[in-house]
């Protein structure tokens, strides 16, 4: 009697297919908020701090974003990069205590509150002027505005998965912060570095305040131009007397402030006699003009000069001691104008002469101070002319060129006019042009006794920069920086707590006064400075407030943010200097700059050990984002559509040292990369269903393929740890993705599916594979945890469900050094090359319709004597996923391929029948009486 069943059996239930609750779809916009709630519930941040007690601290000091609007994509890039570095440091065994902070003072917020006053549809219906509002009321409105946006941004940062001490965040407007800032200013006052001086600074007539270089943007601007004549009154050479020195300027409004003309010692100047002029020219026949010879041809065109002759050439040095008349002489400008040598004068453009207005330019000011020139105050803080600009009083400088033209035309000193489109400084807030204006300001001396510049340059040499190019950028900024202007003429900020003695104009340098100010600010905030009786209160007994001027300027917000280390690190007992400062590359002239100078001046050391800079975010075409172009990618929209992990993947998949690009197509690409990573984790989880430690196979007993995977794990572990210590993540996440996609999904998983699905549970091969899959799950979850913070947590909990557990409470897994095997790795590089050749041969047969899958293939593999012993026949069948492989030694006639592989593979249909369970085509199928449709391996598994 035949014991075989009469009907075919369904063996699908006997195959160990992957099983996992981890879904294929991420559905991140829904899952991530729930994960955030879970982290709050399990006190993730607090528990990290508790269990990290005693570890080596890691301090990434947060550069404060400005609290005045929703986050933009640049904010997301910055905070995600910080979060990845913090999380990686924590998992590498450090105590990464991260305190996020905000910059809350300054012009942008003040400007927004003023806009509300001016808005006819606002709550004040346009009926309130800032100057009519009591300063304490105005400051209260600014504080409320900043507090609102701080809370909004805090929630938006947290939604991105950024982990930090959100409850203990810092803000520059906190009372303790304001007190610390006042104390830091006091250090510079007491050590003599802080002084009051008259110097031209970038001035915004719209906002009525000095601006820092970091608050300046450069945009194309059309400037009126002017060629003016200065009649020579006295000169060493008699033929120069009565000639006109011709200057060219793009700021005609500075002519009332002119007090000298600069020339270049080595420039060749032509003394030109004008014989004829073009119609409409402002010049006259008989004019004698001095112009730089290289620039004469262009000047002829600009001024309409016809026939002319050059009487002689002179070197600029021959003009030493010459005196000219102001072009508006006889109209209130009756002073002499000296001709002075200036090393900044060139023949790049203009006439080779530069008109000098000491109150309106750095070079002008320096030359004027060196030669004792007066510095007239010709321009008010709103950009209108003062009484020191006779004939132009009350006129706005940007509307003055026509009046200047007319006055000089009437005086016979206007040589030509024109227009020039050029890059010109604008306020980053109002977007309006700025001017150079000399006003009394408070400065920190870069040189002198404190040697701030020299010490800062030394500190830069000792600092780690990522990328290295940042070192030269910051060095150049510090080396060329003039004395630091820290005063601003506004209301919302920390006042400069200084008193000037009216009789001597000297600042009061008294540590007791500073101490009283700091104590008051700590209790009441900086508002204490503005309260009635504040001057006498801080001066204390023994001094009369009537004898002192209380300074009402506020300190530059860059000084505030530059001193955050004082009230974030030191005040909280955190290590100083910080391990890392991380911001955009524009902060070489901003926060890195001010932080370095403030800390050097106050403490003598840099506030950081390392500085990392990242690029800016552009659209997919490499354009700057703007609402008008409609190319803005908002992080809020990305998290709503894709989830924060896609945004985090985009950041870390990019080279952040360069400018990054983002847009709809790029986000789709990132979503596809994420899908591959997620599917890798899902397959791992499914294939580990029911795994216990009892299955674990010792390393020495593992097959070569498994040991090769562990070698790759050791390589990636080293790369992860290097990134965690060096902060250089370039290429790390692409390497992880490539490992998941190429090494695992397309190679190792593909090969081991047969063993995992069809081998007996206790087989060495299956247990070995699951041993390695266990390692892979633990490592990949940990490695991806800093980047894909939500997904890594989900993948961890899917296997290790624990109401209180988290992958983020763990360190990177220990990877034994013994897993590194370079010889084995080299061998399997060769095996994969041969496998690729076989796979191509099988694919050609499949495309031709001769076979349907690789398991229908029988492969005759010809290998050279070096490769033929690499694997045995059974191993090759497993690696190439074919049902039968035959090996033969390549003959002497076999020629090497283009790749240098002495390999060939011929593919035919495998003999035998298809196993109903594993689908291999084998001659042994049909030999079993009980299970005639199974191979011997599957028969044994099913029977057991």
From TrEMBL:
Q: Protein name, please? A: Isoleucine--tRNA ligase
GO biological process terms held by the UniProt record = isoleucyl-tRNA aminoacylation
InterPro entries the UniProt entry points to: aa-tRNA-synth_I_CS (IPR001412), aa-tRNA-synth_Ia (IPR002300), Anticodon_Ile_BEm (IPR033708), Ile-tRNA-ligase (IPR002301), Ile-tRNA-ligase_type1 (IPR023585), Ile-tRNA_ligase (IPR050081), M/V/L/I-tRNA-synth_anticd-bd (IPR013155), Rossmann-like_a/b/a_fold (IPR014729)
Record localization: Cytoplasm
GO-annotated molecular function: aminoacyl-tRNA deacylase activity; ATP binding; isoleucine-tRNA ligase activity; tRNA binding; zinc ion binding
A Pfam family that the UniProt record links to this protein: zf-FPG_IleRS
Q: Which PROSITE patterns match?
A: AA_TRNA_LIGASE_I
- Write out the function statement from the record: Catalyzes the attachment of isoleucine to tRNA(Ile). As IleRS can inadvertently accommodate and process structurally similar amino acids such as valine, to avoid such errors it has two additional distinct tRNA(Ile)-dependent editing activities. One activity is designated as 'pretransfer' editing and involves the hydrolysis of activated Val-AMP. The other activity is designated 'posttransfer' editing and involves deacylation of mischarged Val-tRNA(Ile).
| Subunit architecture | Monomer.
Q: Where is the Methionyl/Valyl/Leucyl/Isoleucyl-tRNA synthetase anticodon-binding domain?
A: 706-859
Identify the species of origin. Answer: Plastoroseomonas arctica
Question: Where's the motif 'KMSKS' region?
Answer: 624-628
List residues binding L-isoleucyl-5'-AMP.
Answer: 583
Q: What class of enzyme is it?
A: ligase
Q: Which gene encodes it?
A: ileS
Task: For this UniProt record, give its keywords in alphabetical order, as a comma-separated list.
Answer: Aminoacyl-tRNA synthetase, ATP-binding, Cytoplasm, Ligase, Metal-binding, Nucleotide-binding, Protein biosynthesis, Zinc
Residue intervals of the Zinc finger FPG/IleRS-type domain: 912-940
